[in-house]
Amino acid sequence: MAFAAAKDGTQIYFKDWGSGPPVVFSHGWPLIADAWDPQLKLMVDNGFRVVAHDRRGGGRSGQPWKGNDLDTYAEDLASVIETLDLRDVILVGHSTGGGEVTRYIGRHGSSRVTKAVLLGAIPPLMLKTEENPQGLPIDVFDELRKGVLTDRSQFYKDLSAPFYGANREGSTVSQGTRDEFWLWSMTVGIMGAHDCIKAFSETDLTEDLKKFDIPTLIIHGDDDQIVPIVASANKSSQLVKDVTFKVYPGAPHGLSMVPEFAGRFNADLLEFARG
């Protein structure tokens, strides 16, 4: 297996497939790189090189006690990119991974990046504050923490329903997809899973978004029950200069793994990468 060494020595696992222009994928919480496998194959089949890493704290990466915050996640992403000396990269981030991509650009700029894709992403800020009344109250995130600490196995089984929209009438989500979500989530250490909740909910990425100077594709489902569109993509699309904003009617948070939406997302991703 391939690893990049983070600044604090944590080993960050990554998969590196294909050849051609590089596309680097950052996954959401509480998943691992395997959540991107269908898109990785799609891009390799169409002439791209793809890289996807397991965020620290889960999967095949190290599980340090500290560093489960967006600044460190962004530096871990930088370590992977620099270890492979990737240039003219297309960055793709889902959910927390979208925050990771955003903070990476905020800290490192776009010298190695040519485009960005934010899917169901957390920026600019998920938490409800006086300045951000569209956000979610802290109680929502406290309940997530409680679920992780109390009975995370059952918590992840339950969370898979709103994540994929399986609790909506007419859902096409299979039990296998929900089981896969549980399997990946259970590889994430309890500390990484717990601390990441604060990272994705309380980190303000407004100023990072203002630093984007590359073409950016923002995609969000308007039935996202995890990262509501009103506090995220609707605002992010107003902060990024060169943006294409696509709203998928009826789509859930994990839309890239739901049959009725995955095909559209794959086509949009490929078109944007080729353009």
UniProtKB/TrEMBL annotation:
Pfam families: Abhydrolase_1. GO terms for molecular function: hydrolase activity. Residues 21-256 form the AB hydrolase-1 domain. It comes from the Bacteria. Keywords: Hydrolase. SUPFAM superfamilies: alpha/beta-Hydrolases (SSF53474). This is Alpha/beta hydrolase. It comes from Streptomyces cathayae. The lineage of its organism: Bacteria, Bacillati, Actinomycetota, Actinomycetes, Kitasatosporales.
